[in-house]
Design a protein that fits this description.
The structure is a homotrimer of 356-residue chains. With 356 residues, the first copy, chain A, is of the alpha+beta class. The first copy, chain A, folds into two domains: 115 residues, Rieske [2Fe-2S] iron-sulphur domain (Rieske Iron-sulfur Protein), CATH 2.102.10.10; 196 residues, Naphthalene 1,2-dioxygenase Alpha Subunit, Chain A, domain 1. The first copy, chain A, is 22% helix and 30% strand. The first copy, chain A, contains six helices and 18 strands. Chain A has a seven-stranded antiparallel sheet, covered by helices on one side. A four-stranded antiparallel sheet of chain A has the order 2-3-4-9, with no helix packed on it. In chain A, a hairpin with a 2-residue loop joins strand 5 and strand 6. The longest helix of chain A has 30 residues. The two termini of chain A are 31 Å apart.
Chain lengths: 356, 356, 356
């Protein structure tokens, strides 16, 4: 599967990993089991017993260990078999792969790449539902589509004017205006001022005259972090179109974290949160926003799964980028570059090995 | 897919194409969107936006145009993009394929082949539900089977004696008797006189002693047009087995139009109408006949889908034709000849191009 | 499909083959129709009409014959077409394959291999529900997994300690103890004495102090025949661990016959019976045991289908046998040897043909 590996993928919401309840998930086509010990330590292993390939996610937690519940092999947190019932000798190669795993911003993240390159500093600065500054709802949904198509969707909000008329109530300004695009080391930043608030979701909580600033970073491997707020009329002009201080927003400051995780080549899981800043809303507003989001993300899925089906029946699919695709192009170039670098590194490794 | 292309395929019932409601259908493995404008003009385009391959059938009609509702590209009836929101220049290659489309006999027909060869005179002379001479019901059903198997079924009515005992009540005369088969330029004609009316559907409306004449044409690409009626005993003998004048029928004159459309390699859509001539029945008889047809066509589907599953698990499937297969053989030879001709034409084209 | 062919496969429970009701089943990827005549004779034919490959299992029994209900071809018990409606001449090659078929021990068995090698003596000595010595319940279930994985499961009962905690209540003795394994000509014998009866299913009918002897043969192609019983404490020691005389058991003597039949490469059907010896229980105990078995076999299926899914997403699946796998290894070696022998025989055949 053509995805960056040296990066953190969201495997689930932290609260969905209960103590001693192993969770199985397929990440980039690899079966992974994740479990939380009574000591709150998370472990992620290859979800495939060395014995006969049964999934360890059907297993039983025993203290810091996980027992395969087919024939009883017991694994420690390093993936090593420590017990084979009725057998004294344990082969040294009786070991499954481990994955670095980490809980942060209410998400459980798994590092799918080279463990030497693993670094928690690379975890995107999402906002979790435990953040005291925001009142966030959260959810997730599965897609019968490859993750790349969902990333493309999130990198070009011109689709709001068409896909989300009946949910976000987005007008054509989203499609006609080109946002400011800034390449980041690990992604792309997208910023815009919107003058026309008619129909906008901002209107749910902000009824005065005004305009809206919106900003999101879309970061490797597929994480969207978005905020924004309403400002008095003329603010954009006064700032010369530059970014405002959100502390000074007149209203409607919200945050949404969204993550796209490739399960298999053509299935994905999409995680999302959304809600107001504590100064700009309450739990009732959060629930209203989540209701809108639920409708909107179902609209996205309908379109993207249909797009996937058309692609699947197209012998040699080719796209025709428009000027609205700039962030997509930048992000996909970044992905291609990272994959190329990882591939070069992987090829270089044996050579490096000569001297050791 | 091994189908004739220079021919009209039924894409649906006319009444199912409401104004400004695009309809997506896969024809011969190609995604096609069809829509009816407020001016009643039908348009059929490749159902695949040039931008990112979203289906235009999820789009919005805007006068004579169709807007892709993913990122807003607007198409005219010639398949050309006429607007890209937020972008001034439209690349000249921003164009999807168009298909000739035509409404006739209550069906919407799409020409899948060379547009230079397109000719509405090639549309089979079906009878629509708007024909004042008949009182027709209509329906459709989808098959998990390739269209060729359904065509084969419709070309050999000897199956009536076995598949349709519990619906059409056909006796063994259908299987034991060989009908008169006449090759046509675009198909095959099948005619027969049946002496034994016991159990026959004719008995629903005709209770006197008699015999039955039945005739159908099976035309490219897979359209069955069938009529017939009941006659006094001795008519067939008096006519020397020739076709009678249906104007003189004693009763039970009906018409059925049926069409088989290949969606993908192994799925098909089957359209059918049936009902009495106005002189031989009413809406109540039509409903009775449609009830029988519904049961009978479900019997066909059960058999044909099972046949498809057997074929699919057969490494090198071979058939053993019987004398009942003559119409099938003629029709399949016609199809093979047409496909060969189309292939020769396609190869010849570059040569023609030398002189221009 | 990589299975032994010169062997009897269970195609179903005898009572499920009613007179004149053809049954279709896919065995080793081949469509087979089996029917019982009014004279109680079973016939098994290739389930694929020579005409157009319709399944004969949708056909109609007519005395000793079976009529294809698509176009009426009639087959005799030797697979020969004896009638083509409306056609006088029947081609000599109008014949489908026949399979030896046999009812024994309440099962219908089909021989999938060389008919010259067919021998009913090779049918495993199962115990049918008509056996007067036992009061047996029976059932079956389908698996989305290859038969080999189910065979593996049945050859290593160490899984009882983990998979069946909530059904058979098996304790860890099953996993920690290594049974006595004896190679048989057509399979493997597995015997063991269990000292710890706590939680054991034996406790359902035997409440005194004691120990348990258990023995099963697992025979080609995948048939498990198991019995055992409870004995007073010290019996195993007194016998030096040898097999006891089950006639002398203190209680809990039961029998279970189980059979695994490969349908396609990755689907299987699993047949099972279980119940007490007439001297050790009644219909109520049988029902209790069948309730437990129903729960337990569902546990197996959950594990094995999950194992199949993991295998399917593994590029080059490899197992790591443990000492608990000895019976599996012996049985799989036997299968490999038989397949090799069959292959050699098949290659030798043309050479044999030279002289004839």
């Amino acid at each position: 599967m053509n995805y960056v590996r040296n990066t953190w993928y969201v495997a689930g919401w932290a609260q969905d990993f209960a103590v001693d309840k192993p969770v199985g998930i397929t990440l980039l086509g690899e079966p992974v089991v994740i479990w939380r010990g009574a000591d709150n330590v998370l472990t992620a292993l290859e979800d495939r017993c060395v014995h006969r390939l049964a999934p360890l996610s059907l297993g039983r937690c025993e203290g810091a260990r996980l027992r395969c519940m087919y024939h009883g092999l017991l694994y420690d947190r390093q993936g090593a078999v420590t017990e084979i019932p009725g057998q004294d000798v344990i082969p040294p190669h009786a070991k499954v792969k481990t994955y670095p795993v980490c809980e942060r911003h209410s998400w459980v993240w798994v590092w799918m790449g080279d463990q030497a390159a693993c670094d928690t500093k690379l975890i995107p600065p999402a906002v979790g539902y435990d953040d005291p500054n925001y009142i966030l709802g959260h959810g997730q949904m599965d897609y019968a589509a490859e993750a790349r198509l969902i990333n493309d969707n999130l990198l070009d909000f011109s689709h709001l004017s068409y896909v989300h008329i009946n949910s976000f109530g987005a007008n054509e300004e989203w499609a006609r205006q080109r946002p400011k695009i800034t390449p980041l080391e690990n992604g792309v930043r997208v910023e815009r001022w919107l003058q026309d608030l008619s129909g906008s979701t901002v209107r749910v909580s902000y009824s005065k005259p005004g305009e809206r600033y919106s900003r999101y970073d879309f970061l490797l491997p597929g994480v969207l972090l978005m905020t924004g707020g309403a400002f008095p009329e003329g603010t954009a002009e006064r700032l010369g179109g530059a970014a405002p201080d959100l502390e000074l927003a007149a209203g409607a400051v919200t945050f949404t974290s969204q993550a796209v995780t490739p399960l298999t080549e053509k299935t994905s899981r999409y995680f999302f949160s959304w809600g107001p800043h504590v100064k700009h809303g309450d739990a009732a507003l959060r629930d209203t926003l989540m209701g809108i989001a639920g409708k909107a993300f179902a609209e996205d899925r309908t379109m993207i799964e249909a797009q996937q089906r058309v692609i699947d029946m197209t012998p040699a699919p080719r796209i025709m980028p428009t000027s609205a695709d700039r962030a997509i192009t930048l992000f996909n170039q970044l992905i291609a570059r990272r994959i190329r670098e990882e591939s070069n590194l992987a090829q270089a490794k044996p050579a490096t090995g000569w001297g050791t």
